[in-house]
Amino acid sequence: MQANRGKASAAAAAGSAAQPAPPPVRKGVFISLYREFPDITLPVRDFKDYAIARLKVLKDIERIYSLDATDLDASDDADMSNYGQMVRQREDKVMKSLYEHGLAVEDPNGPLSTERAKECDEHSHFTLRLAFCESSEKQNWFVSQEVHMLKAKLGSSSAVTANFLLREGIRYHSMEWNDIPDGLRLDIYDVSPGKKDQRFYQVPWEAAASLVARRKVVLRRGVAFVAEEDLKTIIANRYRQFLLAQLKCLQNSRHIVEVHNDPRFGSFVKNLKNIYLGPDPSAFSPEEQHVERLTPHNIDKVVPRSFPPCMRRLMEGLRSERHLKHWGRLQIWLFLKGAGMSMEEELSYFKQNMTLKATAFDKEHAYHIKHIYGKVGHMKSKPPYGCAKLMSGDAPPNPGPGDYHGCPFKHFDPGPLSQLMRRYNVPDGSTKKILDLVKGHHYQLGCVEYFRATHPDSAADGVGNHPNAFYTESCKYWGAKSGDGKVKKEEGGPADMDVDQEGASSSSAPAAAAAAASAAPAGGDTH
Amino acid sequence: MDESAESRKRTHDEANAKQEKPNGANLRPAAAAAAAAAPSGGKEFDLDLLRIYYALLFPSEDIIKWLCCRHDPPDVRRVTTGEKIDPHFLAKREFSFTKYTDSGDEIYIRWQCYRKLESFRNALKFHNPVKIDIGAIYNREVDRKDSATGSFEPQQKELVFDIDMTDYDDVRSCCREANICLKCWNFMTVAVKVLDRLLRDDFDFHNLLFVYSGRRGIHCWVCDERARTMPRESRDAVPDYISIITGTDKMAKRVNFYKRDPPPIAKVALQVLEDDRWGWRKLMQQQKWFDKGSTHIDKLLQYLPTELHKELQRWITEDKKYSRFTSVELWQFLRDTVDKWGKVPRNEALKRQCLSAMSEVKVAYAFPRLDINVSKGFNHLLKAPFCVHPKTGRVCVPIDPEKAHLFDPTAVPTLRSLVDEVDSGESDAKMGPSKTSLDPYVDFFRTQFLSPLLKDTLETRMKIARKKSELTGDLSY
User: Fold this and answer.
1) Quick one: where's region Disordered (chain B) (predicted)?
2) CATH class for the region spanning B3-159+208-239+376-470
3) Which of A220, B57, B284, B403 is deepest in the core (most CB within 10 A)?
4) Hey, is the C-beta of B247 within 8 angstroms of any chain A C-beta?
5) Comparing C-alpha atoms, which of B159, B156, B160, B176 is closest to residue B168?
C-alpha cells in the first residue's frame, strides 16, 4: 500500500491551511493511532496493570459488540435513527469501560490524572501488540476490538474527527454542499439522503473501502465523496490497515523472541494472549459438557430436538437434495464435528447421504472432511463456525439461491422465517417475539427466543453465540428431563484475568520490551 | 543456477503431484470422460492436439510478459527504461496445472513457478496441462515457499471477476446449467458492458481484460498496477460494491431501492439496458419472462407498489383484448400507466415509487451476477486466457467489451479447428500461429490490452516515484 496516490492530497494541503482549525478535543480521552512509541520508563507493576486494564476493556468491547455483530448491514434498513442510536449506545458503553479501567478520565476533578490515563492507554496498547502479534487469528481479534475502541473515543462529534485527521496529517480536498456540481450532488443525495448540507471530502476510494463495499458513497473516477460524518469510518479503515501491518511486522521480527524470553515479563506477555478468546469452541464439546455425543445412530432423533435452526435447515437440505453447496457442507461438517461425530462416522454418513458416487465422494469431499479434522494438509483441526462468522457475510458469504447455509434469523425475510418457525412448532406468540427481535437486528436474540420456545422453562445459558453451544445446551436440557444422570454442572467462568505469575521486579525493562514492539519497521505504515 | 533451480523444481513438482493425488483406487478416468463428452465426429479435444497447440499456437510469450508486469525475465526482450526490475518477480507468481496422467487420471498440481519464459514453455511441453491457473504474487519465490523462515504470503494479484451462466438459472428460460445459447449469452453481453463501465467510471481502472471462459461464462482481469497492489480490504470492497443483487430465494425482492431513485450503480446498468441491441427489451423478447402464463409475473407483482400491482392484475385478468400478451406489451402497459399517473402533479410521489420498482425488476433480472468469492482475497486462482476448455474444445479467447454484443461463444476457434488450420496451411512449424483464426484474438490481446497495460504500468510507477520524492513525509494516500 503506497502513499501519496490520491489526486486530492497535494491540493488539499494548501486548501486546508486556510481553514480556521479550532481544536475541539475530548477532554480526558487520549485519541491516537499509536504511530509513535512513548519513551518513558515505568515499573513492571504498572506495565502489567496497564496491560490487564486494556485487555479487560477489549473483552468488554467484544461483549458489547457480540450481541449483534451485524452493525454494518443494519444500515441498509430504512430505520436509520434507531441504528444511529444503537451505535451511540454501544460507544457509550465502551467509553464507560474505558473510564472504569482507567484508560480515560471522565471527571477531570476526580482522583485519576489525565496524564496517568494517557500513559496507561498508550503503554497498554503497545504491550498488547506484543501479546497479540503471534497469529493472524489473534491479530484480527485484537485489531477489531481496537478499532471499535478508536471509534468510540472519536464519538459522535464530526468536529473532533475532522480535527483529529488534521492532527494526524491526513488531508483531503473538501467542498461545501452547495459547491458540489449538480449531477454529483443528486447522486450523493440518492445514496445518502440524510447527509446533505455537510462538507464532503474527496477521498481516494481505497481509503473509503468499507463505505464503498456498502455503496454508501458516490464514486467518480476513483474518488469517493465522503460526508463529514463518515470521516470516522475512514480513520477506522486506516487504523485497521496500519495496525495489522504493524502486527505482521512484529510477528516476523526477531525481537519478539527476546521479549518472550525476558525473565521479568516474558511469560506474562505470553500468557496475556491466552485469555482473550473467552470460551474456546471446544468447550462446547459433548465430552467437555458430559452430554451424549452425536453419532449417525442418534442423529435422526437429535436433529429436530437439539439442532439450532441453521443446522436443522442444512440437514433438511441434505435430505431433500442429497447434496449441499460448498459453504453449506463446510458449515454442517464443522458443526457435526463439534457435536462429537468422529471423522470416520462423518465420512460414512455423508457418503451414504449424498447422491454422489462413492468414488466421486472420495475424490471431492473426503479430503475436505479429513482436512477439517486436521488429519491431512495443515493438520490442524478447524473450529466450528460461531454465529458472528455465520452472519458476517464474509467467508461464509451471504447465502444465494439454492444455498442452505447461513443464519435463518439473519438471512430470511419475515414471511419465510415465520413459516419456518411454524414448521418447527414454535408457538405463535414466540414467533412474534422472534420477528420483532429480528426486525431490530437482534438475530442472535431471536435464536435464544427460539431455544426458549422449544425448550420450555430453560434458561438458555450460553445460547446465541455459537451453534454448538445451542446444541450442547439443548442436549443438557433433554438429558436432565429424561434424568439419565449424564448431565453435570457447568463449570468455569470467564478466564481468570490475573496472569501475574512472576514477582514484580524492577524498572525500565518493560520499556525496552515495548520498544521492541515499536521497533517493528515502519514499512507497514503509510509513510 | 537456473539449471539447478529448474531441476529442483522438477522434483518439487513430482513430489507435489504425488501429494495431491487422491488415493489411488478411486480415480476418475477424466481424460476418457472428456473425450466421450466431445461431439461426435472429430473430437474437439484431444491431448495430442493440445500438445501441438502449446507448441505452435499458445501465446506463451505474451502471457508471461503480461504476468511479469514489466519485471521481465532475462529471455524476454524488453525496452529499457531505467526502471528498477525485480529479477525474481516471475518466480514469485504461482501457477498451477490440471493435467491428465498417462493412465487417464486427472490431477491438480499447485505451486509451480518459473524463472524464464523458456522454463514456462518447457513445463507446458512436459505437463501438457488441460488447464493453467494463475495465482497471486508472493513475498518470495514460490519454490522457496517452505524453505525459508518467515511467513509466505501473497502480496499482489490482479483483481478478477467470474460470471457464470448457471447463476442466471432462475431467470433463464432457454437453457439450464452448463448449456448456453445465443439467447442467454445476451446476459453475458450485458454483464460485460456493465462491469466495464463500473470498473472504468467508478473505480478508475483502465486495463481490463475480458475473457470467454470456454464454456458458459466470462472472466474479467483488472490489471492496473493499483488494482494489483491493493490491500485486502479495498480488494474485497469492489465485488461487494458491484454485487447489488443480494439475498436468497427466500427473499421476495433480491434488489431493493426502498422506493427511492435507483442508486448510481443501478443507473449505470439501466443505461446499458436502454440499448435495444442487447438491452431490456431484447432480454424480455428472448426470455419471455412476462408473457401470459409465465411464473415470473408473480415475482414481478411482488416488486410493484399496491396501486400498480392492482392495475396490472386487472389488466391481466379483465382486459379481454389481451387474452394473449407478450412481455414487451406488459411492460409497455406498466410504462403507459405510470406515465398517465405522472401527468397529475399530486401523483408525483407514486410515479417515482413505480419507476423505482420497475428499475428494481430490471436490475434484479439483468444485472451481472458475480461469483464474489473468486474476487475476494488473494487465494483464488483463475484459468489463464488462451487455455482450451476440455469439455468444449473452445479456446478461452479475449472479448472486446465494445463489441461484446457481437461475440458468439459457439463460433470461437476450437482446438480441433485450429490444428486443422495448421495442418492444411504452411507445413513449416516455425511459422508459428501466424495463419490461423486464433490470430485476431492474439492480436487483440497484444495490441489492445498488453501494450497499453505495459505503458500505463510504467507511467503509474513513474508518477508514484515522482510523488514520493516530492512529498516525503506526507502520510496521505
Assistant:
1) 1-28
2) alpha beta
3) B57
4) yes
5) B176
Q: Cell for B78?
A: 524488453
Calculate Rg over the CA atoms of chain A. 26
List of chain A residues whose C-beta atoms are within 8 Å of the C-beta of residue B238: 212
- How big is chain B, counted in residues? 477
**A42-64+84-247 sits in which CATH class?**
mainly alpha
- What separation, in Å, do the N-terminal and C-terminal C-alpha atoms of chain A show? 10
- Residue B439: alpha-carbon gap to chain centroid: 21
* CA distance between the termini of chain B: 40
Edge-first strand listing for the sheet containing B217-222? B159-164, B217-222, B208-212, B398-399
Structure confidence at residue A500 as a pLDDT band (50, 70, 90):
very low
Span A135-156, pLDDT tens digits: 777 888 899 999 999 999 998 8
Question: Do the beta carbons of residue A426 and residue A454 sit within 8 Å?
Answer: yes
- Per the structure block, which three cell numbers stand in for A52? 490487564
Q: How far apart are CA A7 and CA B172, in angstroms?
A: 43
Q: Which residue has the cell 493425488?
A: B21
Does A45 or B148 have the greater pLDDT score? A45
User: CA A114, CA A122: separation in Å to the nearest integer?
Assistant: 12
Kindly state the cell numbers that stand for B32. 476418457
Of the partner residues B201, B203, B252, the one whose CB lies closest to the CB of residue A413: B252
Candidate list B13, B106, B143, B162, residue with the active-site label: B162
DSSP H helices in B21-85: 30-37, 47-52, 60-68
* Other residues' Cβ atoms within 10 Å of the Cβ of residue A193: 12
DSSP B105: B
**pLDDT at residue A121 tops 90:** yes
Q: What share of chain B is helix, strand, coil (3-state, %, to 5)?
A: 55, 10, 35
Query: Nearest CA to A408 among A308, A318, A333?
Result: A308
* A191–chain B Cβ distance below 8 A for any pair: yes
| CB contact burial A160-179 (16+ within 10 A = b; e otherwise) | bbbbbbeebebbbbbbebee
CB atoms within 10 A of CB A509: 17
Among A218, A223, A406, beta carbon nearest to B264: A218
Q: In terms of Cα–Cα distance, which of A372, A256, A319 is closest to B151?
A: A256
Pick from A171, A191, A212: CB nearest B237: A212
3-state secondary structure of B429: helix
Q: Which residue intervals of chain A bear CATH 1.20.930.80?
A: 42-64+84-247
Q: Would you list the domain boundaries of chain B?
A: 3-159+208-239+376-470, 245-366
Contact B163, B191 (CB under 8 A): yes
Q: Each residue of A245-291: pLDDT tens digit?
A: 899 888 888 888 888 888 888 888 887 876 654 455 556 677 777 78
**Complete edge-to-edge strand list for the sheet that includes strand A173-175:** A173-175, A200-204, A223-227, A218-220
For B156, the 3-state DSSP assignment is: strand
